Every structure is written in C-alpha cells, then in structure tokens.
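Posting for a labmate who doesn't have an account.
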Amino acid sequence: MYEYISGRVSLITPTYVILDNHGMGYQLHCSLNTFSKIVHGQEITLYTHFVVREDAQLLYGFIDRDEREMFRLLISVSGVGPNTARMILSSLSTPELTNTIINGNVSGLKQVKGIGLKTAERIIVDLRDKIGKATGEINIFAGSNNTKREEALSALIMLGFSKNTAEKALDKVLAGSSDEPIEVIIKQTLKLL
C-alpha cells in the first residue's frame, strides 16, 4: 500500500522512528540495523511495510529495499510474525541472514532471542529456495554499472525463473551476440526457457 515515506526524523528510538512528512508524523517500527543508520533531524526515505491486525495497523520502516524484502520473506514463514522478523533483522544484517539461511546454519538463527530449534529449521527450509529469487529481485536495482548479462539475469529471476536455468539459457543467447539491447537479449532468452 505504501512504498516509502520521506521526511525529517523528529524522534528516534531503538524500536521506532517518527518521520515528519509535511506536518504529518508517521510512526515506523524499525530494526536496530535501520536505527543505527538514522540521525535525528536528518531527511531520509524509509521503505515501508503495512501490517493490519485485528487490534492495530502498523507501519514498519526499512533503510533499504533489501532489508524490507528479507522482512517480507521472514513473515511469510509460518510462526514468524512482524515482531519476530524485526528481532531477527535487529540481530543479523540482511547479508548475514542471507548467508545463514543459504548455509543452513540453524545455530546462527537460534542465537536470536525468541527463535527456537523448530522455528530456525522452518525458516531455513521455507526460505532457502526463495532467497535466490529475492536476491535477484534486489539486484535489479543495483545500478547502471551492471553488465547486460547481470541485468538480464536479474530480470529473468524476477520473472520467476530459477537462477541456474536462466543462466544456461542466457549464456546460449549471449554466445550468439551480446551487442543486442537488453530487451532483445531477454526476449531471446525467454524463447529458450
């Protein structure tokens, strides 16, 4: 519903921040990682996730899209709610959590307060396959220094293709001609998939 909110930081605590946006104060719950990158009085943009519960409507704010995407993946796991996901993201940075999940490091997740063995295992099992797709989605915003191959691969992963399958098809297309515009490369690769 809300993609992001920009404004001046009028209050900051380790668990939430108040952003003043044209006279409206938005309370956004945040992780310690986001908190550590915010300065009182600074103009910032926080990417948001809106949670509607029976007893509350809450906004969660994230310093970047990567952290928000990881939050969304975490709350998709049965038994992991927004507060638990925020606790995990407060204990581990997004890259650390990604490595923990990909490597199946149950003990690394169990060190987070409130995460037991079964929850840690469930997070790893449920998210290990999704992490590759999320990483591809995040990398599509990486900027203009990407090669055509990297940009095309990110787009294909975002479309739902597995990284390995997309890489094989993309390599076949690029072996023929890599001088084509990125749109043509993606269309040719889609024909092979």
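Reply:
Got it, the structure tokens are right above this. The first strand starts at residue 4 and ends at 12.
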